[in-house]
Amino acid sequence: MALRWYVFWAFAIVGSVVFGAAILALYQERSWLVISVDNPFDLASLLLASASLVVTFLGVGVALLALWGFQAIKIAAIDAAREAATEEARSVAQSVASRTAIEAVQATITTPPPEQADEIARATPPG
Question: Per the structure, how many domains does the chain have?
Fold first, then answer.
């Protein structure tokens, strides 16, 4: 994990220097040079400005990657919850179905058929 931060900062520093050099070369080529190269403070301000731009673009890129990663985590969590709920529902349905089947079989065994129930009711004295 720490290696990723080193890569991030190395990319930011190298990118800002390259970006600053590109801006400086562009200004010198087009003769739009607003900054004097002879003054080191102007060059430092140019490099710091380019570093801030590169870090800003990297931050926006990381934010976009975070949104993409959040969506992936969200989809994975929904799929895992759906799978767990389906498994639990099957387990509960199977136990309820088993219990209902056992109760139905026990009721059939202890309850006489309707034809015999009428005969038993006539033979049994009231009260």
Answer: 1
